[in-house]
Write a structure and sequence with these properties.
Blueprint: H1 4-18, H2 50-53, H3 65-75, H4 77-97, E1 103-109, E2 121-129, H5 131-134, H6 136-201, H7 207-242, H8 268-271, H9 276-297, E3 303-311, E4 317-325, H10 334-398, H11 404-438
Antiparallel strand pairs: 1-2, 2-3, 3-4
Helix pairs in contact: 3-6, 4-6, 6-7, 6-9, 6-11, 9-10, 10-11
Length: 446
């Protein structure tokens, strides 16, 4: 019959093997994981922001600003990687919650001398490090706060991704509108130069006037070319943000020129209780506080307790109790304590810096929204009259009742102001979107 301690060893080994994980290789992908077409539906329950969960997703009539944000929230490649990072943090929390394992030791001695009463000697011991239990609570608290920090950092990146999607939507819509206006100006200058070139060949027009018309056409061509390049880059940036294949063209609904007025900017103290990035820094600081506490607890002498059962070569059986004590004479974990305290001080300063930056950014964006809104209202105030004058000039020019240069200048002024208006619309929308995110309402108005 096997010895009881031998049986115990076998049972412990079997239990350890039964708890072991298995390994399976997972190769890297070999092709892009991008969507070829805009999905017909989005799972609203998977969206991180509450306002997005209540907005209908219907790409058949073009994606509006909120639908673009919804698609970015669920399909952005960077967010997928960040969500995998959050899984790592929760796995580390699971690891921290596990208690340290005991140590089982066994030995066998075979006597090389022969003689009566000699037998094989053995020793079986079971040890446990008690310091692991002392620091376990602090380690779990640090890991829990770190996992919460990663979750909040993920939420903050989701906020920023939603903001960036809305910004690109605004930019794409504004650039499309400006390109249409610039092409209208290009057609106007092209028609003007076509007439001038014919008149120049028939000697009915001087070279300086025809040259001025050609210069205006070349300038219009240059502005159209630059606008086309900008719009092409915006579409590629939007596709990359939405996780769409480069050749995909998501249908976009027209942008509403009217920008809803921003709500009153909250105080920084309110933002510190709602902004994910500030809450993440706070949890990071709490995690570091727990790390400092863990380092302080670890300065105490390391203590291990063990029980042994042994038999010597003369067949004498013994049972023993062993204690191992690490004497803190030279290190006493002072270096680790100094590192953790310095790290805590660094995180505290970083949190203060973020608070200071937030106060300045919110105030600056509030002033920018107010300033650009006033400028846009000023342009909208006289633009209808300018449009009417341009229309009258068009009719007069076609009826040969207006000088070509006067007509061209008036049309140019009108088209330039239309482009300026869309520049202001884009600026105030983007400032408003940035303010929504900083103020804790990243989904913007419904």
């Amino acid at each position: 019959m096997p010895h009881p301690y031998t049986l115990l060893s076998v049972l412990l080994a079997a239990a350890a093997l039964a708890a072991c994980a298995t390994y399976a290789p997972e190769p890297l992908p070999t092709a892009p994981d991008l969507v070829e077409n805009v999905p017909l539906r989005v799972d609203a329950s998977s969206l991180p922001l509450l306002p997005l969960q209540h907005h209908p997703f219907d790409p058949s009539d073009g994606l509006d600003m909120t639908e673009v944000a919804m698609l970015a929230a669920v399909n952005n490649p960077d967010l997928k990687a960040e969500r995998a990072r959050a899984n790592v943090a929760h796995a580390q929390l699971f690891q921290a919650r596990l208690l340290p394992d005991p140590q089982l030791s066994a030995g066998l001695d075979h006597p090389t001398d022969t003689g009566p009463g000699l037998t094989n000697a053995y020793a079986i011991g079971l040890d446990y490090d008690l310091v692991g239990l002392i620091t376990h609570g602090a380690g779990v608290a640090a890991a829990r706060a770190a996992a919460g920090q990663v979750d909040l950092e993920l939420l903050w990146q989701e906020w920023q991704t939603v903001q960036r999607a809305r910004e690109l939507y605004v930019q794409a819509a504004a650039e499309s509108a400006k390109l249409a206006i610039l092409r209208e100006a290009q057609a106007l200058y092209a028609e003007r130069y076509a007439r001038s070139s014919v008149a120049l060949r028939t000697h009915d027009l001087t070279l300086d006037i025809a040259g001025a018309d050609l210069t205006a056409l070349a300038g219009a061509d240059n502005r159209v070319n630059e606008a086309e390049q900008t719009l092409n880059q915006v579409h590629h940036d939007l596709n990359a943000l939405l996780g769409l294949a480069p050749g995909t063209t998501p249908p976009l609904a027209p942008l509403a020129p009217a920008v809803p007025p921003p709500a009153a900017a909250p105080a920084v103290s309110e933002l510190a209780r709602s902004r994910p990035d500030l809450l993440a820094l706070e949890l990071g600081y709490r995690s570091q506080e727990a790390s400092v506490r863990k380092a302080v607890l670890a300065q105490f002498p390391s203590l291990s307790v063990g029980f042994t059962r042994a038999r010597d070569t003369s067949d004498v059986h013994t049972v023993g109790l062993g204690i191992t004590l690490n004497l803190p004479l030279f290190s006493a974990n002072r270096g680790e304590i100094a590192v953790q305290r310095a790290t805590r001080a660094q995180l505290r300063e970083e949190y203060q810096v973020r608070l200071d930056q937030t106060a300045g950014e919110v105030d600056g964006l509030c002033q920018q929204v107010a300033l650009v809104t006033r400028q846009l209202q000023g342009v909208d105030g006289y633009l209808p009259d300018l449009r009417e004058m341009a229309a009258q000039a068009e009719r007069a020019y076609r009826g040969h009742n207006l000088e070509p240069l006067t007509y061209l200048n008036l049309q140019t002024t009108w088209l330039d102001k239309e482009v300026e208006r869309w520049d202001l619309i884009q600026t105030v929308w983007q400032a408003r979107i940035a303010l929504d995110t900083l103020a804790g309402t990243p989904a913007g108005p419904p």
